[in-house]
Design brief:
By secondary structure, this protein is α+β, with helices and mostly antiparallel strands. It has two domains: 10-230, PmbA/TldD fold (2-Layer Sandwich), CATH 3.30.2290.10; 241-253 and 355-447, no CATH class. The protein is built from nine helices and 17 strands. Helix 1 (13-29) crosses helix 2 and helix 3 (133-148) runs parallel beside helix 4 (218-230). The longest helix has 17 residues, at 13-29. It is globular.
């Protein structure tokens, strides 16, 4: 993998900030009492192959400007994909026209000036990769070939893909905040189908990172996709019962996502959450901490500020099992009579603590139960906390995997699942803005045959 420094986007940083500043000045001249604007410029390449043949090669390039203006407590928003000065002028004018016709909202407006970020770190988020389409195709083909060559039982492929993305985003408001960030993101994935003569199974693997050096080797990705497909062959159904359930890391982060949604400011002020007024509540066991770490160098969720320019939150969201605070942007914070804590663009590297065991140790601790490796459907209600999803995985006896299982449903309530966490693995998955190991839950209903 070759790495070099390209200036095709880096030279645009000052230009983007200048466009933002001009748009804010226009809004002020048109009578806005305050305004904010965000601008993004991105480009990328996507390559996909299937059965050792090239399927698609795509290049993307996008621009976008969005502006919100405030006439007192009236708000108007407009956007454009053109950075032509006349298009921007019309966009600002449209936002102002809208604001004059909207109703007043006492909670609307810019983030409070004292909440804005004032210190900016180099978070190591930009790693250019001088990769042309021919090289990208070769990497994707190599990845898929590594999967197809694992076994004669790998009979088909959903393909392998490689995606690159580079972008600059700028945000400014009339409090005087004006900053830009440059980020890259690369990913490689592979999905193949195994067949043992009795049935077929599909599985996948992928790697994603800010830098090309942070990606797993393409051959390793392909082999792992194939191995995951092969181990699912011969899957059975299970009789209905109540059992411990172990969620592997890539699924465990979904449980934390449901928690985040329930303690989000919008859900709280709308009173549409099973964790309504949960601040200060002992929701998890005492060994559970959720720590937000927005300044991790090179991490996928790192940032200096949120979508409103507010300083991002560094510290516990959950401490010793107790919910510390809600995830608030300015609007939801005002609705709740509180202050924003930098979550207008979600969480930033939210890390779940672990109890020190690896996956094998968690299987031993579970002894007998279900290890879930795939979830299907959208049966999660964050208003009631009810949880019911289709699943597949492996049945475990005496702490050892016995056989694959499929066509089952796992069900419980999220509140019970959170309080029923028995252990958290140290097999941390860093491929996202939620960093989690495997999670072992004491008991869920596993619905299968009978």
């Amino acid at each position: 993998m070759k790495n070099s420094d390209s200036n095709s986007l880096s030279a645009s940083t000052e230009t983007l900030e200048s466009i933002i500043a001009d748009a804010l000045d226009q809004a002020r001249r048109l009578g806005a009492s305050s305004a904010e604007a965000g601008l993004t410029l991105s480009e990328g390449m996507s390559v996909s192959v299937r059965m050792r043949e090239v399927e698609t090669v795509e290049y993307q390039q996008d621009n976008g400007l969005g502006i919100s203006v405030y006439f007192g407590q009236r708000k108007g928003t407009a956007s454009t994909s053109s950075l032509d000065p006349e298009a921007i002028r019309k966009t600002v004018q449209a936002a102002c026209d809208i604001a004059r016709h909207t109703s007043e909202d006492p909670c609307t407006g810019l983030a409070d000036a004292e909440c804005l970020q004032t210190e900016f770190r180099d978070l190591d988020l930009w790693h250019d990769w001088s990769l042309d389409s021919a090289e990208a195709i070769d990497l994707a083909l190599t990845c898929e070939a590594a999967a197809l060559d694992v076994s004669e039982q790998i009979v088909n492929s959903d393909g392998a893909s490689l995606d690159t993305a580079r972008g600059i985003s700028a945000y400014g408001n009339t409090h005087g905040f004006l900053q830009s960030e440059r980020k890259t993101r690369y990913s490689i994935s592979c999905s193949v189908v195994g067949d043992d003569g009795q049935g077929m199974q599909r599985d996948y693997w992928y790697s994603v990172a800010r830098s090309p050096q942070g990606l797993e080797a393409v051959e390793a990705i392909g082999r792992r996709a194939a191995e995951r497909s092969l181990r699912r062959l011969g899957a059975r159904k299970l009789p209905t019962g109540r059992h411990p359930v172990l969620f592997v890391p890539e699924l465990a982060r979904g449980l934390i996502s449901h928690f985040n949604q329930a303690i989000g400011g919008n859900a709280q002020y709308r009173k549409a959450s099973f964790l309504l007024d949960a601040r200060g509540e002992q929701l998890f066991p005492e060994f559970v901490d959720l720590i937000e770490q927005p300044y991790l160098p090179g991490a996928l969720g790192s940032a200096n500020y949120d979508a409103e320019g507010v300083a991002v939150y560094e510290g516990p969201v959950v401490e010793k099992g107790v919910v510390c605070d809600y995830l608030l942007d300015s609007y939801s914070a005002r609705k709740l009579g509180r202050q924003t804590n930098g979550h207008a663009s979600g969480v930033h590297n939210l890390r779940l603590s672990d109890t020190g065991e690896d996956l094998q140790a968690l299987l031993k601790k579970m002894d007998r139960g279900l290890m879930v490796t795939e979830l299907m459907g959208q049966g999660v209600n964050t208003v009631t906390g009810d949880y019911s999803r289709g699943a597949a995985g492996f049945w475990v006896e005496n702490g050892e995997i016995q056989y694959p299982v499929e066509e089952i449903t796992i069900a419980s309530n999220l509140r019970d699942m959170f309080s029923g966490i028995v252990a958290i693995g140290n097999d941390l998955d860093r491929r996202g803005n939620i960093l989690s190991g495997s999670i072992l839950v004491d008991e869920m209903t596993v619905a299968g045959e009978g």
